[in-house]
Amino acid sequence: MSGIYIHFPFCTKKCIYCNFYSTTSLTQKDAYIKALQKEIIQSTDYLSDVPIRTLYFGGGTPSLLSIKELSIILETLKLHYFFDKNLEFTFEANPETLTLEYLKSLRELGINRISIGIQSFHDSILHFLNRRHHGEEAQMAIKNALNAGFDNISIDLIYGISERTGSMWLSDLQTAYSYPITHLSAYALSIEENTLLQTKIKRGILTQPREEQFIEDYYLLLEESRKAGFEQYEISNFAKNKRISQHNYAYWEGKPYLGLGPSAHSYNLQTRRWNVANLSTYIQQIETGFCHYETETLSETDHFNEYILLHLRTAEGIDIDKIRTRFGNEKEIYVRNYFLTIEPSHYTIENNYYQLTDAGKLWADQIAMNLFILQEDKL
Ligand code: SF4
């Protein structure tokens, strides 16, 4: 199973917390589409596992593409790749761009999963986050998606925002779950490098998000999600009736994927490569035939660390039998011994799978980092 990710690097406004590669100037949109088409054609040899099972347009704000522009990109993809008849085709969109007409056209193009960047239904929080939309537009976007015939709708929310009271977070969750959505991605607000949020905190304009707020919001998220019948299949992702993101799950499972567009990453089981994270350079390098990406070959240690990092975050957890068969007895003992040193209430062992509990998930990154092997002689 393999997937394709297309990075659309344009947004009309930069959100306060965002460190994804995007530009707020749309002047190079045409040149980007031409370069992307070339990259699509140049990369046909990258994935050997066909047919392609998932296609994901992310960004940036892909819903800034007109239907005509999107059709041109899709035609190029269809000409050069073989897609599964049950393709999961996800399109990320911002609420203010989702008119009923636009959504109906997306459906006609074969898009069967829409992921809406809502973050909050409260105007004051959206203003704080520097989002372009209002709460009412967010609700209208969901209604339009339903009316356009989407039955697989994911929304994104952000929590751990000190400016939002607990009751506002509760109402955000209740509003989200009052609609027949199938999926929720909920991310904790984090201070990333080179973001507006980091700058404002450094300058003393904003204060650091409070840890207690994050923990309170996290438990409320778990409680409301369970009440609504959503399963937490990954730390930040909740699905109803098993409507998980197949694209993201394949990534966590270590399946191959091809990333196209500036800053996109690719993985083909042996190597990882990442495209230049600069639009002008990307366009110029594709146009002139220069290599537009860097590559690294993954060592056994890299594969082990990656397995730990990605699987620790999933409900399935770390399969200790797989650790033994894939990485050897020494690593199995290493993992078993490590878990003996951590707080017992932070994990359970089910059929030889090490799974984090609700409390343990709060420590997932730290547990993963402690398990990482920096050099083979750590064992
Ligand atoms: S819309 Fe998405 S990609 Fe664009 S700045 Fe905001 S969070 Fe980042």
Query: Per DSSP, what share of the residues sits in E-state strands of 2 or more residues?
Result: 15-25%
Find the CATH superfamily of the largest domain.
Aldolase class I
Could you say how many structural domains there are in total?
A: 2
What radius of gyration results from the CA coordinates? Answer: 21 Å
Helical content stands at 40-55%
pLDDT averaged residue by residue: 95
Which strand order do you get reading across the main beta sheet? 7-8-6-5-4-3-2-1-9
Small-molecule binders here are: iron/sulfur cluster
Which residue ranges are poorly predicted, with pLDDT under 50 across at least 5 consecutive positions?
A: none
Q: Kindly, what is the distance between the CA atoms of the first and last residues, rounded to a whole number of angstroms?
A: 33 Å
* CATH architecture verdict of the largest domain: Alpha-Beta Barrel
Number of beta-strand segments: 15
* Secondary structure tally, helices: 15
Main sheet? 9 strands, mixed
CATH topology group of the largest domain:
TIM Barrel
Tell me the quaternary state.
Answer: single chain
> What is the SS-derived class?
alpha/beta
CATH class value of the largest domain:
Alpha Beta
Shape assignment: globular
Order of helices and strands: EHEHEHEHHEHEHHEEHEEEHEHEHHEEHH
